[in-house]
Amino acid sequence: AIFDNGLHVIVAEYHELPLVDFHLIVGAGAAQDPPGKEGVSAVTANALRRGASKLGAEELARAIESLGGRINTTPGTDGTIVTAEFLRDDFAAGLDLLRQVVLDPKFARDEVRRAREEQVASIVAGLEDASTVAEKCYGIFLYGSHPYGRPVEGRRASVSDLGRSDVTAFYDRWYRPNNTILVLVGDVAAADAVVRLREAFGGWRARPDAIPLRPLPPEPAPARRLLLVDKADATQAQIRFGNTAIKRSDPDYLPAQVANTILGGGFTSKLIEELRVKRSLTYAAWSMFAARFAGGDFRIGTFSKNPTTAETLDLALTVDGDFRNHPPDRKALDKAKSYLRGQFPLRLETPEALAARLAEIDFYGLPVDELATFRRRVAAVTPADVQRVARDHMPPPDRVAIVVVGQGAQVRAPLEAKFGPIETVAPDACEKLSAAAR
User: Fold this and answer.
1) Rounded to two decimals, what is the model's pTM?
2) Is residue 217 domain-resident?
3) Which residues share a beta bridge with 289?
4) 434 band by pLDDT with thresholds 50, 70 and 90
């Protein structure tokens, strides 16, 4: 249903457990952060739970806890997610608390300050973790000034300068019903639930300009470039590389998932076989499509001892290139399809999980039969399909953005010997990478 104020509402009955689960997506994420205000979407999401209506932060927390429920917020790139879960018997009380959090947050000055300080502390703490540094630097290095290059948590300098007025301005601009999807899955009668949701959210005022201008598709990296993040205390070197790829609504998304499962999506993948089983260069290696509204990227990640970093990276690039150039054997394809089909029902077995998938379908404009046809569509994927999507959506080894986080004294010379000139920055300097650096 679509309410008069533009709110998209989906209700699904789920009677196996006496629960009600809510999943909201507001089209307001890091991609909507204003320039110089990177991180405001995340601070806003954090501050939502710190008092609402007449309830202060502690009072709100106690009210939720007294029902044995929970309300959580998760900032992202394309949007912010608000989830809630309550017992069926507490449906009315839980819905009212959720309404207050979403429609009437207090944004008390002290609570916004605490949310900002927590965010800054998290950013600083992330500099100590090589994997966190690798993920953040990779996104900035690949996307440059594109909105998808903005770290969800923001940049230390920009977050430190955020005030209450920045948070309220972001909320007022984007937190509107015509920019929100609300899904309810639970032990309820659907017709009654829609009535209750209309009573709670029907009065939420729309704003004509609340619908975000989605980013244009990001430009791919035209050639291979390597960034070394010199972390002197890194006991292992973290490796990430990839390039821009498909958006979530691309018809190739599902065969791309099958291809990814074969290459690096499971413990029996080609990357694991070559890097771990045969060469003992790493314990883990993986690949993924980070598919978003306007595009995304395909990336490969692994780690290695500092002295074997160049060898590990070279082999991972070789595996990627070989996979693009050769169709998978039938055994590997069947194993991947069996895995995806088997995992599918497990990922829908709770009302929380089902609500998340239904919200994703609506948010990204996927076909309404996305879930009903999933297993059949997976079964129909052929070796030719896998090779086609690998060639179309997985970058060749000579056109990737590479980020290595490791001890420069040990990894720089071998990397330069094998890959040529490299750029070097300190862990806290990734935030300063500009579009010009691309």
Assistant:
1) 0.94
2) no
3) 298
4) low
